[in-house]
User: Fold these one by one.
Assistant:
Number 1:
Amino acid sequence: MFKKYLTKAVTVVVKKYTKLVTYLENKWADKHASSFHSYKLFKNGVHSTLVDLGDLSQLWMDITCRSQSILEILPTLSRHQVYVLRQVPKDLMKILPVMLLAPLPGTILILPIFFAFPRIFLSRAFWTPEQCKSIDTKCLKDRFDYRTQSLLKSKLLTIIYSSSCSMNYSQPILKSLRNLANALSQASILEPISAEQICDLIPAFKGPLSLEQLDTSHLAALCRLHGLSIYSYIWIMNTLLWNDLFKGKSILKTSRILVLKKHAYFLYAEDQCIQKDKLFNDHSLSIIQSSELKQVSKGSKKGRQNKKASLSVVIIFRRITINR
């Protein structure tokens, strides 16, 4: 009897509180439209983040309870599950200060500080559509930084030409390196690279171009090119799920190799989801590749030359890092 009365009392209190909040929000929206807009964005962002956090917790529990490894489970997940597993841990690391301050009284007074630097303090759930477009554009420009492209091109060509004269690699690997040099030349004149050509490059990435063989500066440049941060992946449970990737790695390289391999597996899983959902067919993908090459071809001749190596690395790394 007491439990029933308590439940009814709590329900009544919650309903009255909800009505009060709704009344205050309506009054606030009429008198202070600008500050109410920030409050609304913050409220919706917190709600969206909490929903994603619940999905992530459930997904972690499901994965840890299964006998399979994360590498076997990932290709079987849905697009939303892959997104949650990939993006939410990074978002939580970014917005942790905001989430800790949210329950405290007076938080609304410091919200303008967070909204003034959305890329630093807030995740995508808190951004306006205009901010999403602006920040995405800036992030893409940062990824295609000239210094990163030059370093990657230099490193890649050095490995190709030095390895081609070495007797330490088998003939299939040497042939694959020659094919890679041809593929880079083909990309430099804006010719699309076929799937068959990319498959022929796989042996090179089992030899001198494997992540374990690359030096630290090369790995760091690859991380910058793909917009990856080591610190965003320092999440205990998420790291434990990927412990299979730690085996046989140098201590100095482990973090970057782990980040790049996780990124590659996520890309592979997303490609599998696109294929399962039939969002694109082979003809559509070929059109997209041609469109990407046309976008790169726009602008000055110097700008095109600066982007060629980066385009090649993106295509090659995305398609053959996962040897399936």
Note: The chain has two domains: 32-117, 143-320.
Number 2:
Amino acid sequence: MNMINLSATDFPIKSVRIFSSDVAEVTRTFPLNFTQSLNGSLAINISNLPLLHRQSGIWASVTIGSDDLMVMDYYHGPSDYKSDPFGHRHETSSDVLRDLRAEFTRLEDERQLRQQSFAFLSTYMNSLAKGNALAGVTEPAQLVTLFDEFIDIGKSRSEVIAVLDQQIKDVKKEIDEEVQRLFLESCALVTKATVILAPVSGRTATVAELELKYKVNATWKPVYELHVTTIDGVPSSSVVLTYRCQISQSTGENWDDVELAVTTAEPYVHSVGVPELKKMELKQRGGFWKPDPCDLPVKPQNIPFWNTTGYASPFENILSSTQQDRRSIFGNAQIALHQAGATQEPAADNVFGFLQGQPTVTTQGFFTSTPAQYSSSARNPSSGGSNATDNTLGSNQPTSNLQQSQPSTSLSASAHLSKLQHQRERIVLAELDKAVTHTTTAKVFIPSRGVGGTHHILIATIPLKASFTRVAVPSVNSHVFWTCEISNTSNYALTPGTIHTYLDGKHVSDMDITSINQSQPIQCSLGIDAAMATQFNRTIGSLPDFNGKATKTYTITATLNNTHRDPVSNVIVRTSLPFSADPRITVTLQEPGGLADINSGTVRVGDGCYARWSTAGDRAGKNDGLFEWVCSGVKPGSQVLKAVWHVTAPCGLSFTEP
């Protein structure tokens, strides 16, 4: 068998796909050129692959030349390298390291040469200082010129040496970084893969491309930047959402010039198949035959004191509920317990579900099970009692004639497992359908974390339209807040993450996206409107007692103060009225008038001002007593909004006021 050895670092990474569970799938390509036709099998050993994710393997295929070659086998294992006597791995090298070391040697030689040349000149000048005559130099002026030139040469030499020293220092730093990178690679690139190729019978392969896929550890999470600009102090409706992915990988590989995709899908696909229907049978509850209690010898019973004469049973209401309606798949099955001619048995025996003389039978349909009870008269027709239960087919059969083929627990357990399997498969299909995948518009470079740290890769720059509203909650805070609501009209489904909001380039707020629903609007805060403020006041009054009831009146006022020169539109003021956990206490909303009578919509409370229940976001509105005023225009100055409600409680009942 022919064999070739390849290093993965010498071949490009084609693409990287990062999944939601900190797993990335890397695709590498290996071009193959055969100088001679391949007659037998070829083993390709690929070294310097990273540590794979958990127990995941590799996947090999031929993308070019697949008609001529086929993959007979592929497998992977730890790299086989030789260590020194101390157990350390031998230093690896690279073209970059070799070039850096060559440059370092050249700079060192140049520095040494310049030092030697200046030393030679210095020796010559020293000889002149000792009186040795210089040929051709007889005049003192010539000597002065010579010494001046020597000084200039010395200055120039010092400058050149200083530059060389800095260059040598920089190259030495690059060498250290490259050595560190290679060391990290030697520790991380510890996997070796082997792929066995064989020619297709009757075909000749000259050119081929081998594709290798494997999974490694990597993380990604979305990061958004919302940029809002103002025109004359008013936010522009045109905003820009920058969608980036924060990516980190420490595989030892450098993802250089790769196609990058991020997805919310899971890296491993679960088994999904069509579920099988199970046979369904009608079973008697209990699963095993039980002897008739009437045939057993009578044993003395301990009757609680509350079940003896003169004491009332605390379970009386439970024990008296002997008639119940049960819904079958074709309607209601009325199951009556007839007491005529039957001996009433002690109530204490059925307090905890054990009914002496009244075994329970289950009429189990396709989707539900209907419990039925019958008295001892059902077992003894001569006593005059009767009992019949409507089964799923509509016929009336005595429940005691139900046949039992095997314990009911086996059927119920298998049906339960089948149901769980079906639910899991539906969940998997739903997750596959909901998976969101985004691809970068250009190829990216992401080195291993030991070199490059965490990266923020651009996915898209999305222009959107926004609407702006001022929101105040006077009972909590006196400020009026700018809020921004954006409808995602783009083709990008935003995955859960954090949005950093910038107003005129200044970071003003952060918020989290918790849903990937594309139609859900994005809401964020832009800070405080310093030209507006609110005041909150609450007063409590009382009404005369009536029919043993005491009523308190609560009045709140929220005052909007607008110091803008012009009217302000779209102002929302939120408040709430209390709810009582005690049914004896009632809360009645009086103002805004008519709001208590509606569940949705608005009621007019003034010129350009309406009231409604707060249902934006996750607010429950009327169910939680949350409502708000919506003012289409607030003129400069002050505007007062008022709410009134009554709290009615029995006289003498104390409660904590809101």
Note: The CA atoms of residues 95 and 101 lie 10 Å apart.
Number 3:
Amino acid sequence: MANNDKNYHKTRFKFDPGRLKVWRAITKYLQPYVGINKTVLDLGCGYGDFINQIHAKKKYGLDLGPDVKDYINKDVNFINKASTSLEDITANTLDTVFSSNLFEHLDRTDIDKTMKGIKRSMQDGGTLILIGPNFRYAYKSYFDDYTHKTIFTHVSLADLMQEYGFKPVKVMPKFLPLTLKSRLPKSYYLTKLYLHSPFKPMGGQMLLIFQLQK
């Protein structure tokens, strides 16, 4: 939902209240994978579209954006840092880490630091949930976002995560349209129908879910 560039929110990622409806459907879809009585981190939480709506025992949201704190609910422990700085989270305490549209904004060095921080913070058997653009289906528009640094497909992202001990348990090459910026209305019900449909027109975002094996 965000990246490690403080200025990103001013250009590519301004607050949009309509996005909450879409994310309510996404969050409801992902809730069974997150669980209820869990400790959850939203890495690159942006305006809190996911972490504000997910049900959890304890919630963390991390983002470098200078203004996003005002949008984060009071029950979320907000950390105003980059994804490479997870030292504020105690080792082996996270059950689930969620991240949307973050890793493509990182170079390989920052990806390595981020993944090592995630692995240190998570319990063995914990769940990692990633959403992001799939270059295989979004190659024409992938670099329309000038902050994209690294190319991923559902295959390459799964392979990379396995280097850090994360075993893929669910891979959806097409999960969502590439962008929410369209003339179509932002609707909870339309998003819910899309998520549960076997057909994914304009699908350019992938979903991968992993289990940590330390």
Note: The radius of gyration is 16 Å.
